[in-house]
Amino acid sequence: MRHSSLIAQHIRKWILVLPRRQALFFETASPQVVALLAMNTKPPNPKACKVCKTKFTPARPFQTWCSPECGLELVKAKQAKEGKAKAKAERQADKAKRERLKTRSDYMKEAQREFNRYIRARDADKPCICCGQPLRLGSGSSIGGEFDCGHYRSVGSAPHLRFHESNAHGQRKVCNRYGAGRAVDYRIGLVQRIGLDAVEALEADQTPRRYTIPDLIAIRDEYRAKTRALDLVETVGETWKQQT
Ligand SMILES: [Zn+2]
Ligand SMILES: [Zn+2]
Predict the structure, then answer these.
(1) pLDDT digits (tens, 9 = 90+) for 131-164
(2) 3-state secondary structure the chain
(3) Which residues are in the CB-under-5-Å shell of ion ligand 2?
(4) Which residue from 1, 15, 102, 144 has the fewest beta carbons nearer than 10 Å?
(5) Ligand 1 centroid vs 73 CA: distance in angstroms?
């Protein structure tokens, strides 16, 4: 077989996999031009299909799928990915909107919740501040935890002491909610725990505290972090106990 006819055969083979417009050009161009071009045309290398990993020879440079079926799989995967991204963006927008609609009172509630949670975590292993019984004794419901964060000077009458750590202690729900806080017993327990001077300082404290929204956010985040740190210490302690 002559050399030129070998080239022609080679070209015919590749015309089959070329895009239509390119193929038309080859079909209509003179044999000399075609032969010249063919010397510089490298056949595409086979590659693995992105979907089924089968080796195939791409018809176009950026084709990554071996068949229409695999092509469809790729389109579906792309759409699913876009759908997920859209849903995530919507969730974030909703969250941002809720954040914008929050009032100072919402931030106050969040900060108080985190402060109270911290006090309960801090006092979990101590007795009830007013009666000395175990905190978990007779706790039926776990709403707001098994026991309360009881304020010595109540949040209602002394709101400036609502985030004061000496003014708040773990207290059984039955004592905090149904015994009017058991103020006299609370004071006895408090003197034992923090000393008379600290109790009297607390009783004399009338310094007003004003909390802006950024203050409340900072308080919320600070107590959330403090509770986490306590939980971490507890977990590490448990692991250590198990090992020894
Ligand atoms: Zn495939
Ligand atoms: Zn009690």
Answers:
(1) 998 887 655 555 556 889 999 999 999 999 999 9
(2) CCHHHHHHHHHHHHHCCCCHHHHHHHHHCCHHHHHHHHHHCCCCCCEECCCCCCEECCCCCCCCCCCHHHHHHHHHHHHHHHHHHHHHHHHHHHHHHHHHHCCHHHHHHHHHHHHHHHHHHHHCCCECCCCCCECCCCCCCCCCCCCEEEECCCCCCCHHHCCCHHHEEEECHHHHHHCHHHHHHHHHHHHHHHCHHHHHHHHHCCCCCCCCHHHHHHHHHHHHHHHHHHHHHHHHHHHHHHHC
(3) 128, 130-131, 172, 175
(4) 1
(5) 9
The whole-number pLDDT of residue 114 equals: 97
Q: Classify residue 244: in a domain, yes or no.
A: no
CA 188 to centroid of chain Cα atoms? 44
Assigned domain for 113 exists? no
100 CA to centre of ligand 1 in angstroms: 48
Distance (Å, whole) CA 69 – CA 104: 56
Residue 201: inside a domain: yes
Longest CA–CA separation in the chain, Å: 115
Q: What's the domain range around 21?
A: 2-41
Q: How confident is the model at residue 19 (pLDDT cuts 50, 70, 90)?
A: low
Q: Is residue 56 part of a domain?
A: no
Of all ligands present, the nearest one to the C-alpha of 54 is 1
Our count of domains for the chain comes to 2
Task: Say which residue the tokens 């725990």 belong to.
Answer: 193
